[in-house]
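Q: What structure does this chain adopt?
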Amino acid sequence: MKTCNGCKYAKWNRSNTGRLSPTGDGICIYEYKIPPLPASRYWIATKPCIGGGFINRKEEYKEHCPYYMAGEP
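A:
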């Protein structure tokens, strides 16, 4: 899918009454694990730090998300 609408990993911002926020903002709660490196390899500085994760119901991405899974969390 090129949107996060309907994805079980999408956690949408809600208003005080529990309705979806009109901004359409949210965050992806998919928990990923970076595979371990072989014993002969090492990280140059520190382990990679991945940023982002912000999503929007009104946005369509250029690529399909490989982790999209139907269903609300």
